[in-house]
Amino acid sequence: MDDVMLEGGKSTSKSIASDVYIGVKSWYKKLDPTGDKLEGYREGINHALNKVQIMGMDSHKQISDIYIALRVHSNMRKLSSDKPADKYIYDKDNPESSLLLDNENAFDIDGSLRSLGYGHIPESLKRLGKSSEAKSVEDLSINDGLTNHVYHGKEAFSFVDGEEKVLVLGQPGCGKTTFLKSLALAYSHVFKPDVELGFLIPIFVRLRDFYIDGVGSSDLFLKFILEAVSELSSVSFIDNWMQQKIEKGQCVFLIDGVDELSDEQSKNVLNCFRKFVNKYHKNKFVVTCRTSAYEHGLEGFKICEVDDFNDKDLGAFISQWFGDQVKTRKTLANDLKTSLIARDLCKTPLLATMICLMYQYNKRIPNNRFELYESCLDALMYRWDSFRSIDRSRKITSISDNAKKAILAKVARTTFDDDKLYVRKNYLLSLLSKEIDRLSLKISSSELLYDYESNMGILVETDVNLYTFSHLTFHEYFTALHYLELRNENQIIDKALGGHKYKEVLLLIMEKTLDADRLGLILIGRIKSEVISTGLSNSYVEGLIQDVLRSSVLFDKRVRAALHEVYSELMSLPDPFDVYDDDFL
């Protein structure tokens, strides 16, 4: 049992201090004297979690190094998304919300700003350029109550190990799931993190796999946990044995993807999870969620956020990607140094992957995220099959790439609007068939699905006959593409103000459209009439304006200046929690 227990690490007994090594052996023997449970479970964890498929690379990579840093926050409220109680609805009788909608082809920016009350904007703000923008927005939020302590690499393991409950926030594709997987591997001693961790049994689950109809209980969530453990183990687990370990507080629960719950399921699933946490509070809990999707849903969790790639992280990533292609590595590094926009794009592993994938084929760095996603997907349409050693003769060539994009955009928007991130194969085939028939194309829905999945890697089968986009970012990109194609940009303002789900879609649309000024002015009017007029701050809307200003949207300098003033006004408003606290006292 001793050799099997530590087989994941090379020269483990030499690299880990002897007292830790002995402690691990003693702990495993105490938990599982016969060695017939944990051995099979560790093997299952290693097989299922010790790999990551990096888009554009020809094989899975083992999780052996961590390119992640955690920034710890002390103020929960400043990171929470105060989604409005009543969803914003467009009101045609409201002069601010109807502004510009009646005359889409031409409008007077100065006149529109005057009607909104921003005709007084000083020249100093109007001269504010994009290069100074990040600093300006940052200056406005200096007193946001956040600590700046950052834990890099193995320090992030130590930080998590020292906390009882941790909520890990982050951008799309920043490495939240990979971090949870690495924690599972570290706690099971599949690989050595070079830091001393507590002796806990790791349990990794994706929250989206938990489905309930109505109000759930802690027992129902426990059943879900035990089923997940059994699926990972190569030997039969005795549920009572694992339940005893949970009751004694000998486990660390790694819960992935709070933001991936549908609106329909979110409330019931989170209530059920909270009951489970309260009942089995002796255990450790680590939960991940998109930053923009976090609301006041998990009390008592220490909040941290995955930090952006620094220069060292990005350099290491590029070196691993291009390997011995020294010339390409150097030219990309030089191009990144001279392009502030490109460096700003390389904040996460996903975005860095797209930069590398795109640069490998056209040696060009995009100007914004929309162009980056567009270039990357173009590359995937031509190159994914070769990456995966797929016979190019099987590629479907009877329809154009533009037609494939149009169909995928329609599917993306239909499923995104219906809150369906995962769809059954039959339903997906029916959506494809409908578009194929509408466009009178000579191809079957099965052939087209094969092309999207096997040749491009844009759609993936996550379970038997259950499909999703290979990353939520692609789902958002194609949804934005459809809104743009049908000129439905106005609708997205309403949806983005109604909640975090459509925020990324709005940003993509604004970066792509030639009509960004009109959308920016509509957004200003809506925020003034629906938020500023209430006299109370809204951290979700503050974050939305921050993201708009930090993006690569091409605004007229007058519109950009007005957005800055709107942000200043929002930041000056009192926190609704403080107002309610005062009323209570």
TrEMBL record:
Pfam families registered for this protein in UniProt: NACHT (PF05729)
PROSITE patterns from the UniProt entry: NACHT (PS50837)
NACHT domain segment(s): 164-293
Protein name, entry field: NACHT domain-containing protein
Organism: Endozoicomonas elysicola
